[in-house]
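hiii so um. not sure if this is the right channel but i have a protein structure encoded as tokens and i wanna go backwards to a sequence. like what aa goes where. can anyone help
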């Protein structure tokens, strides 16, 4: 189990290194922060002083090595807008983003797993067809369309909920439901497929033939074995919630990390953008690492290296 965990941790570290490198290079190819921040009418001397002050006058390799060394020491740089540490600027927005992503995760897990199991147990019935039709609609509709539609219905037409802002818990309902419905639709389809595959296995038929109660067959045999492939998509959903918050927070004017990313990109605030991308990348890597380790805990064959999880 130790070697299995170490190999997954090593892969996660390499992924984070690639994320750091990609974020650094791509941001420096998208435009000159000096022109964006100082404006097009500033004198050339002001541009030169700005670049010199922020180290942008150095060759990109020198900038990268300095940035990588600073990140290794825990220094993620300072905001070019107000001079504060980037981690401080991003950190004050994290609680607001968690206020959306954590309820959205609980919502899509409860709804998605329940709907997927119900569809599998009622295969080819109207229940199955209805759940799959709704789930196909859910994961094919873009998040901004889903968000705008919910806002139009419940905020504009019915006036039950506020259309944007973060003044009360009611303001979080529409963004949470928007993220939760999309995630639940994806999880429902994967759960249904995994359950149908498990329900067709010989050991399920054997347990039923021996008179084991059907509830016990489902809870004790089918669900634990169906959990292995389903964990993959759940891990992906956990990691993608922060990234998905970018669109949803912008639609509902929610002042979280996602909305900060949009404004930081527009303002070429490099340190803030890099910090947010690292946060998103770290979240996704950590979620997938947790899934890999959970595979080894659920299926002992993986710890022995005799099988590999389906991805």
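sure thing!! here u go:
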């Amino acid at each position: 189990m130790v070697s299995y965990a170490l190999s997954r941790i090593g892969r996660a570290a390499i992924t984070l290194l690639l994320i750091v490198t990609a974020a650094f290079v791509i941001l420096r190819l998208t435009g000159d922060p000096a022109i964006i921040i100082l404006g097009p009418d500033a004198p050339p001397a002001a541009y030169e002083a700005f670049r010199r002050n922020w180290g942008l006058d150095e060759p990109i390799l020198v900038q990268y090595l300095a940035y990588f060394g600073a990140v290794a020491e825990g220094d993620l740089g300072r905001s070019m807008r107000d001079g504060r540490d980037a981690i401080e600027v991003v950190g004050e927005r994290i609680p607001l983003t968690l206020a959306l992503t954590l309820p959205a995760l609980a919502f899509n897990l409860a709804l998605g797993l329940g709907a997927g199991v119900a569809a599998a147990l009622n295969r080819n019935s109207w229940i199955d067809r209805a759940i799959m039709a709704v789930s196909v609609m859910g994961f094919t509709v873009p998040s901004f369309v889903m968000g705008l539609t919910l806002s139009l219905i419940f905020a504009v037409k019915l006036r039950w909920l506020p259309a944007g802002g973060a003044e009360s818990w009611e303001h979080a309902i529409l963004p949470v439901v928007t993220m939760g419905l999309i995630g639940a639709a994806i999880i429902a389809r994967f759960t249904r497929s995994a359950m149908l595959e498990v329900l067709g296995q010989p050991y399920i038929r054997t347990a039923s033939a021996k008179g084991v109660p059907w509830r016990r067959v489902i809870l004790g045999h089918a669900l634990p074995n169906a959990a292995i492939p389903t964990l993959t998509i759940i891990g992906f959903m956990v990691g993608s919630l922060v990234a998905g918050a970018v669109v949803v927070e912008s639609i509902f004017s929610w002042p979280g990390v996602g909305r900060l990313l949009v404004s930081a990109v527009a303002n070429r605030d490099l340190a803030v953008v890099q910090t947010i991308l690292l946060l998103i990348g770290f979240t996704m890597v950590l979620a997938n690492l947790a899934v890999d380790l959970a595979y080894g805990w659920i299926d002992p064959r993986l710890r022995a290296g005799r099988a590999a999880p389906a991805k």
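oh and The domain at 94-255 is CATH 1.10.3720.10 (MetI-like fold).
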